[in-house]
Hints:
2 copies of one chain form a homodimer.
Chain A: E1 4-8, H1 12-24, E2 28-32, H2 35-44, E3 49-53, H3 61-71, E4 77-81, H4 86-95, E5 99-102, H5 107-120, E6 133-135, E7 138-141, E8 146-148, E9 153-155, H6 158-169, E10 174-176, H7 177-185, H8 190-207, E11 213-218, E12 222-227
Parallel strand pairs in A: 1-2, 1-3, 3-4, 4-5
Antiparallel strand pairs in A: 6-7, 7-8, 8-9, 10-12, 11-12
Helix pairs in contact in A: 2-3, 6-8
The structure holds a DNA duplex.
Amino acid sequence: MKPKLLIVEDDPNLGEILSEYLGLKGFETTLSRDGDEGGKTYKEGDFDLCILDLMMPKKDGFTLAKEIRAMDDNTPIIFLTAKSMKQDIIKGFTIGADDYMTKPFSMEELLVRIQAILKRSTKKEVEEFPNPFIIGALTYYYHENKLKTPAREINLTTKENELLRIFFENINQTVVRSVALNRIWKDDSYFNARSMDVYIAKVRKYIADDPSLKILTIHGEGFKLVQVK
Amino acid sequence: MKPKLLIVEDDPNLGEILSEYLGLKGFETTLSRDGDEGGKTYKEGDFDLCILDLMMPKKDGFTLAKEIRAMDDNTPIIFLTAKSMKQDIIKGFTIGADDYMTKPFSMEELLVRIQAILKRSTKKEVEEFPNPFIIGALTYYYHENKLKTPAREINLTTKENELLRIFFENINQTVVRSVALNRIWKDDSYFNARSMDVYIAKVRKYIADDPSLKILTIHGEGFKLVQVK
DNA sequence: TAGGTGTGTTAAAATTGGTTAAATAGGAAC
DNA sequence: GTTCCTATTTAACCAATTTTAACACACCTA
């Protein structure tokens, strides 16, 4: 099951971007516009982690965090704020935060920090990838390293399997080279990048068994699995 | 009991200050001067958290962290570094860090971050392994070194038994080679690894008595016991 | 359109794992 | 202590996976 994130952010732009990005990364996100709304939403949902802006109308992030801690002293909280004052950071952690990020920040960094916290959170779900995962004429079994096509059954090697999973997690979205490299090869280097290119070729051949699926090259960026009807 | 911290920092000034400050704050601290020494110290002590500098002589922090993860994939790690490049931060978390702080930083902030992590860090559990443990058509008695299959009753040797237990504790999760080696053979060496390969083969034959169970190879990583429905 | 950089393809090289059998170690029985 | 048995390690060889290398081609910018 997807981990549920509560995002409380009054800046509509940032809120939307966050919600969308994290949604694409496998989370179920709920966006609230201010502290009051955030508190109500928190009560209703069963969230695995909260991302709170500090400066918001009606109710600031610290106050909201205290309310959340009063209801449940376990749900992880990340503060997201433009205030980088030492005293605010200390205060955030004292209230019971798990992390404190200063704007502007990188989405990717936020993502890995969320993952690091959920890794230790008792309520964590072992991120479940649908098994089997069906797309077009293909049936994919991540846990068995297996891909069934109309023509054949392919036993995937470890690298093929991980790469395929990333594509299926990101249908119609660009998979950035460096992200895939860091995730699968644990390191973004020239030779690993060339190794990945070799695997891209292999995976392309497999999914070609369904002609409606294609892996496009986004020059200088990465790749995108698209499904054309 | 005081939480035990391993601090690996080559700058003697910073190392002393950190060690002293955290000592005053209720931790039992051990200070190592470089990556090599840090690795040895880690093996000997039973630490609750590691604070690693990134740039050190002999062995850098990333390499040391990988070694620590190979011995135990649970002990929290905080990187402490002057490098604030996005790619390094991502890499740090990818290796399995819990936090990443950029110098110069506030002692007080480090302290609250340590506390936030320890709050979620799972205790060294004396978790009772179910006896018997039933999976699919197999019934496993860890304490009796015994595995019953529909076809036979197998008396396991010590090594077979320990290996099987690790797999049953980690269904659908990768069992990292080095972690299993350190746990069963107490040492991750070439010959022990080959010895383990021999045992993997034996154990594979046993669990093959239930065709829904398989031990897959995760190349370069380890093995994964999967149950297919 | 030329030149640099990034990507595609293929094959060889290197690394890692699988299998089998022989060698060794270590304990129990004599 | 010797003998026998079993568990474990070492070894050799083979197989699978991954990386490296070389070269061809595509894309972007000046």
